[in-house]
Design goal:
Layout: H1 2-26, E1 48-50, H2 52-60, H3 64-75, H4 79-84, E2 85-91, E3 95-100, H5 102-115, E4 128-132, H6 144-162, E5 166-173, H7 177-191, H8 209-219, E6 223-225, E7 230-232, H9 240-261, E8 268-271, H10 272-277, H11 280-290, E9 294-297, E10 300-303, E11 314-317, H12 326-338, E12 343-349, H13 355-366, E13 376-380, E14 383-387, E15 390-392, H14 404-410, H15 413-421, E16 429-432, H16 433-436, H17 444-464, H18 483-504, H19 509-528, H20 536-559, E17 569-570, E18 573-574
Parallel strand pairs: 4-5, 4-12, 5-8, 12-13, 14-16
Antiparallel strand pairs: 1-3, 2-3, 6-7, 9-10, 10-11, 14-15, 17-18
């Protein structure tokens, strides 16, 4: 169907160019309408709808329905229409509905089998995209909010890869400041034998058991290595700087282990401190001042952020000489832009919503040529964890929140990834641990993976009966005419367009939605038809459809970073 659609769009474009020639020459319109199809609201109306007649009627001074009839007459002369279209009909004020021949729908099977893992992928894009996500300060384990960011960010990276972009994953964190000082003092208190609740325990200290683990490793003069650093402890409980550096390296290492368990890697770790030591914060502020975008009031330096849509001007430099937190963010994004990234995406919690206008305003105020609307943001809401019918709020390891490692240990990496991507980012999400462990259709990730395993089971049985996978390209696809087969083929054909739309909308949840629909179409097919029938030709055709379906399920799961198992247990019985 993909090839058919493209050929039909080309044919429509040819007809529209010819019909619009005089109108363009007279200046009535600047150019012929772009060839485009819409999906009819009701499947009975056809496979594609065209609104070109209504778009052109005013310029050509013709009744839309009359013009639609002219369009139909000229389209019927096009070879692609003759090859792929069964009927062209006028509806309403001038819609043209196209009903495809069965061969157009069936062709998608061959397209999937030929492209295999590249089905749905677009040609190389000339630009690169930088996706910054997780970006947790090294002050404790990664919590469920970071887990949602990890799922969102990594899926977006995979999505953009399918669209031909070169993708870079970046982790940004503050390696200095108040939180890091608190971490150092918390560890030092543990080294001195104090624990939460003791007299002398710092009020703002971190209380998790992981602080004791850091202290014990520090006393043993351990060496820890993270993806971006390595440090050996001095073992001196009075050496606060060594404690600080060791604690940061220790927790970065722990975070790396969490990310590895999640199946996630980063291409670069960016330190906030480098923006100061490299003079990039001062340079950004100087540029804003030189461009007249700042003013002083009450001993503070202010950004005229209301010039850029913010609800009020914002303090950049406080009266004590320190910068507010959005200023290094501006410098950081200038750095991203200067590294050549024309598109940058930040995955953050909704508590960062208020910073968007001031960061974007600050970037405009620097005058370095950054386009408006840079960077893009995907903001996510909270995750609530339920287990045993009750909300889980405390993790022994972290002391005050459920961690990413907790979720993986309680369920699986696949479940965590799929569940956390299965809702729009801007909606709150309840992670039900008990549901994630169910081996039935209530569990959405099981429901999708089971479709893949079921197909693998049927194909194994066919191969054991002498079926030849290498001969699937010779299958007579015209035999696939059952309603459930048409529905399944339509879902396969939807895959490339869904990927493109999901990437454009920064909506990786669309992939999870699609997978559930595709699995549903397969399960309906499985319930309605027998696959291994006496008719060898029909069996081979159905094996071709199943193989194509298996490939698309696998491709889409890969976008989410979820595995595609070939065998699964259901109701305590292994699928054979």
């Amino acid at each position: 169907m993909i090839q058919a659609k493209q050929e039909l769009l080309d044919a429509l474009g040819t007809v529209l160019q010819a019909l619009s020639q005089d109108a363009v020459a007279s200046g009535a319109i600047a150019a012929a309408p772009a060839a485009a199809f819409e999906t009819p609201k009701q499947a009975s109306h056809g496979d594609f709808a065209c609104t070109a007649a209504m778009q052109l009627s005013k310029a050509l001074r013709k009744n839309p329905r009359e013009l639609a009839q002219t369009l139909i007459a000229q389209l019927q002369e096009q070879p692609a229409v003759q090859r792929w279209v069964d009927a062209l009909e006028i509806a309403g004020p001038g819609f043209i509905n196209l009903k495809l021949k069965p061969a157009a729908r069936q062709a998608v099977i061959g397209e999937v089998l030929t492209a295999a893992e590249r089905f749905g992928q677009q040609p190389a894009h000339p630009d690169s995209v930088l996706v910054e996500f997780v970006s947790a300060n090294p002050t404790g384990p990664l919590h469920v909010g970071h887990a949602r960011q990890a799922a969102l960010g990594d899926s977006l990276c995979h999505l953009f890869s399918t669209q031909g972009w070169t993708v870079r994953r970046e982790f940004y964190y503050n390696d200095a400041g108040v939180q890091i000082a608190t971490l150092a003092h918390s560890t030092q208190a543990r080294l001195k034998g104090l624990k939460p609740g003791d007299a002398g325990w710092p009020e703002s200290a971190y209380n998790g058991d992981y602080i004791q683990d850091i202290a014990e490793a520090f006393l043993s003069k351990a060496t820890v290595k993270a993806d971006d650093r390595e440090f050996t402890a001095s073992g001196d409980i009075n050496d606060l700087d060594s404690i600080r550096q060791f604690a940061v390296a220790y927790l970065r290492h722990e975070q790396d282990l969490d990310l590895q368990a999640f199946g996630l890697r980063f291409d670069n770790y960016f330190l906030e401190s480098s923006l100061y030591t490299g003079g990039q914060v001062e340079d950004a502020v100087s540029r804003m001042m030189a461009n007249g975008k700042t003013y002083e009031d009450g001993g503070a330096l202010w950004l005229r952020s209301t010039d850029y849509g913010d609800d009020k001007d914002r303090v950049m430099r406080k009266s004590d000489g320190t910068y507010t937190y959005f200023v290094p963010d501006v410098a950081y994004h200038v750095n991203k832009f200067k590294r050549g990234f024309s598109k940058c995406i930040n995955i953050q919690g909704t508590d960062h919503h208020g910073t968007i206008a001031r960061v974007r305003g600050g970037l405009q105020a620097t005058g370095v040529g950054i386009p408006q609307g840079f960077p893009d943001y995907v903001l996510h809401k909270m995750v609530t964890v339920m287990k045993g019918g009750e909300e889980v709020k405390i993790s022994k390891r972290a002391g005050s929140y459920v961690t990413l490692r907790d979720l993986i240990d309680w369920t699986s990496r696949d479940a965590v990834r799929f569940f956390l991507i299965s809702r729009k980012a801007d909606t709150e999400f309840v992670f039900d641990v008990d549901l994630a462990l169910k081996a039935n259709d209530e569990n959405p990730v099981f429901y999708v993976q089971y479709a893949h395993a079921r197909i693998c089971s049927v194909l194994r049985n066919w191969a054991e009966q002498g079926g030849d996978m290498a001969a699937l390209g010779l299958a007579d696809l015209s035999l696939l005419t059952a309603p459930t087969e048409y529905a399944l083929m339509q879902k396969l054909a939807d895959y490339p367009r869904m990927l493109t739309s999901a990437a454009e909308d920064l909506a990786p949840h669309d992939v999870a939605f699609y997978l559930r629909d595709l699995a549903g179409a397969f399960h309906s097919y499985y319930a309605a038809e027998r696959f291994l029938v006496d008719d060898a030709a029909l069996t081979r055709s159905r094996m071709a459809l199943l193989t194509a379906t298996r490939q698309v399920v696998r491709n889409a799961l890969a976008v989410l970073g979820v595995s595609a198992p070939e065998t699964m247990a259901r109701d305590n019985q292994e699928l054979q």
